[in-house]
């Protein structure tokens, strides 16, 4: 009876979000990873016998980033890595005390095959590129730098890089326009290269202005070089829902840089940016407090009776507006200092829908 009830609730959620609707036709094709300098792959397959979905982006010359989910669980797991010889090594952000990784090869059709290692064992994995019920996206990357004191071999340097996703040619025009508008934060920009350079040029111009009167009477301080990095990831891509992550990091002197990831949940059918209230009933804010605490305790392995505030700057964790969704749950993300110290990093707390059935719309 419990299984039947959960199935019924899940079906209602999917229908209310429009996930049973048909995706408009698109002629875009998956890229060839052996020739494309930067690309996005929506991959489906298995680790051992477990079905998974991976959204992988080559976001720089030597950088891979993305997420994957076990289809039965639906909780996004962040991955990042780089090429090593003829293989790609992707590390996952799950257990702070144990290394878990994918080691495999990409073929010209976008297939990814190899070994997953973790939990003291290993399993074969095989994934294939598929755009069924998924939006095709291109990836653009740029980097630039400026010397603070041109001609000085010891000059500090301002450096900035940026990577973005962009609707691929062949994507339904209305969907492409809606996605593009949200990538550019409402700006009517149709040239991805122009948008890509925007943050880079702004950061480097600010560096030149702010540091032009740098006091070098006692030598050039080590914090005189600035740096910035931005990238976008796909967390979930299953029509009509598309979840984007926008990450930014900048160092402008001081003890450490500042960074954070922010999420946008798009309904591609309704052309609507979704809010938490589109998924959960009005009383969700108070009701989610114990669920968020449970998620935090699980991630950081707190003992029974150990209070979460021993690791945080707050006594309880409240849901915020920086959220993501999959077909199995909702996640709330907290940037450094929002609920915890800088050393704790960005915190993502995922709550399965099955644990909050009374809150679902």
Q: What would you say this structure looks like, in words?
A:
With 361 residues, the chain is an alpha+beta fold. It has three domains: 32-129, Lipocalin (Beta Barrel), CATH 2.40.128; 137-212 and 221-273, 2-Layer Sandwich (Heat Shock Protein 90); 279-359, Heat-shock cognate protein, ATPase (Actin, Chain A, domain 4, Alpha-Beta Complex). It contains five helices and 17 strands. It has helices at 2-16, 173-183, 192-210, 284-287, 289-299, and strands spanning 39-47, 50-60, 63-70, 77-84, 87-92, 101-106, 112-118, 121-129, 137-147, 157-167, 226-238, 241-251, 258-267, 272-273, 323-325, 329-334, 347-352. Strands 1-2-3-4-5-6-7-8 form an eight-stranded antiparallel barrel. Strand 6 (101-106) and strand 7 (112-118) form a beta hairpin. The chain is globular and about 65 Å long. It starts with a helix and ends in a 9-residue tail after the last strand.
| Rg over alpha carbons | 22 Å
CATH topology of the largest domain: Heat Shock Protein 90
The overall average pLDDT, rounded, is: 93
Q: From the 3D coordinates, which CATH architecture of the largest domain would you assign?
A: 2-Layer Sandwich
Helix content: 10-25%
How do the strands line up in the largest sheet?
1-2-3-4-5-6-7-8
Low-confidence region ranges: 1-19
Give the number of DSSP strands: 17
CATH superfamily of the largest domain: Fervidobacterium nodosum Rt17-B1 like
> Structural class, from secondary structure content?
alpha+beta
Largest sheet: 8 strands, antiparallel, barrel
Shape: globular
Task: Provide the succession of SSEs.
Answer: HEEEEEEEEEEHHEEEEHHEEE
Text of the CATH class of the largest domain: Alpha Beta
Number of helices: 5
């Amino acid at each position: 009876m419990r299984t039947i009830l959960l199935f019924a609730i899940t079906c209602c959620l999917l229908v209310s979000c429009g996930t049973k609707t048909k995706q408009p036709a698109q002629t875009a094709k998956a890229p060839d990873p052996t020739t494309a300098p930067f690309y996005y792959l929506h991959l489906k397959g298995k680790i051992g016998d477990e079905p998974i979905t991976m959204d992988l982006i080559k976001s720089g010359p030597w950088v891979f980033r993305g997420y994957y989910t076990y289809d039965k669980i639906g909780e996004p797991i962040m991955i990042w890595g780089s090429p090593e010889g003829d293989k790609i090594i992707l590390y996952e952000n799950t257990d702070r005390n144990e290394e878990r990784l994918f080691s495999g090869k990409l073929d010209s059709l976008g297939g990814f095959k190899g070994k997953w290692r973790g939990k003291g064992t290993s399993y074969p994995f095989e994934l294939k590129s598929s755009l069924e019920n998924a939006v095709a996206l291109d990836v653009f990357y740029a980097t630039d730098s400026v010397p603070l004191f041109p001609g000085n071999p010891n000059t500090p340097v301002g450096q900035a890089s940026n990577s973005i996703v962009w609707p691929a040619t062949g994507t339904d025009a209305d969907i492409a326009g809606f996605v593009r508008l949200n990538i550019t934060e409402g700006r009517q920009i149709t040239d991805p290269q122009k948008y890509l350079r925007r943050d880079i040029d702004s950061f480097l111009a600010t560096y030149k202005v702010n540091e032009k009167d740098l006091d070098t009477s006692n030598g050039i301080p080590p914090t005189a070089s600035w740096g910035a990095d931005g990238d976008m990831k796909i967390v979930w891509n299953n029509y009509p829902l598309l979840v984007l992550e926008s990450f930014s990091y900048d160092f402008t002197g001081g003890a450490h840089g500042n960074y954070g990831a922010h999420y946008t949940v798009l309904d591609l059918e309704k052309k609507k940016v979704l809010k938490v209230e589109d998924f959960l009933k009005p009383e969700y804010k108070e009701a989610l407090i114990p669920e968020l605490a449970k998620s935090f305790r699980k991630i950081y392995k707190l003992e029974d009776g150990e209070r979460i505030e021993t690791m945080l700057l707050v006594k309880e964790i409240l849901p915020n507006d920086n959220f993501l969704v999959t077909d199995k749950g909702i996640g709330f993300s907290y940037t450094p200092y929002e609920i915890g110290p800088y050393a704790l990093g960005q915190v993502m707390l995922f709550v399965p829908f099955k644990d909050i059935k009374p809150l679902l719309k």
